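During the reporting period the student researcher (J.K.) took over the structure-prediction task from the postdoctoral fellow and processed the backlog of single-chain submissions. One of the processed entries is reproduced below for the supervisory committee.
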Amino acid sequence: MKKLKRMIVGLDIFSKSNNVLKRALMVAKQNKAELFIIHAVQTPWFSVPSYFGGKEISVDTEGITKKIEKKIKALNKEYKVPYSILVREGEADDILLYEAKLLKADMMVIGANTKNKKKFLGTTAEKVAHQSHLPVLVVKNSVKDMYQNIVAPTDFQAQSKQSILFAKSIFPAAKINAVYSTEVIYVEGPYTVVGHDFVQYNEMAKASAKKDLKDLIKDLSIEKGKILDEGGNSKEVLLKYINKGSYDLVVIGSRGTTGFKALLGSMASSILRETSTDVLVYVP
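J.K. obtained the following structure tokens:
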């Protein structure tokens, strides 16, 4: 498993960014990684080039850099992590994705930038998570300690297993619980009883899932696993389980820039968007 050496931190100095910085410093310290702190400044659309006779609007990159420096120095006293500060002009998601490739980063840390209680994810964080070519840690909560309890929704495929191994490598002290949510199949039509399920098929599917989960726990040497077979919509059951649990991180896998929805379908997007827990999107 690839080690963390270079981490990108997407920073918005106009929001409550201390949690993002603190989490990034904590992870970097544990993994002996270097931080590249990036703040993107969107150029005002009403900026008029000077050759039209208007006054050109300049971005105070030096002032912004000093402000970030002051913020990180106070937080970094405890961790003493090497870092660089980059202030760039442009859309935040475009800048972060471009710099991540340019700097050959191993992981990105970004804040959720939530603006209300009903919406758990900001636009920039969602765009970056969908398009990133490297793992993205989305920080939604205040930071007190390293992650202790991790939940990893799984479909038993390679990307899911890799995401768990990655989480184990960067958070070695955390307990990981692999979870599989089953979907009971029902049939409806002129010759069937509405709501009647394929009893034999569903029982075989559950038995197969239990075996796959047992093998996964053994192969990956994780603490425990759980089959959610409460019936109903598997996505809703899983989201309810995550939000009601005492987990501080959710780990989900991705197939890469072809769309991280591919692993668990719309379920992965829902986990990222609708859970209040920090989320690690793993991209191989």
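The committee noted the following: Residues 145-284 form a domain with the Rossmann fold fold (CATH 3.40.50.620).
J.K. will present the remaining backlog at the next meeting.
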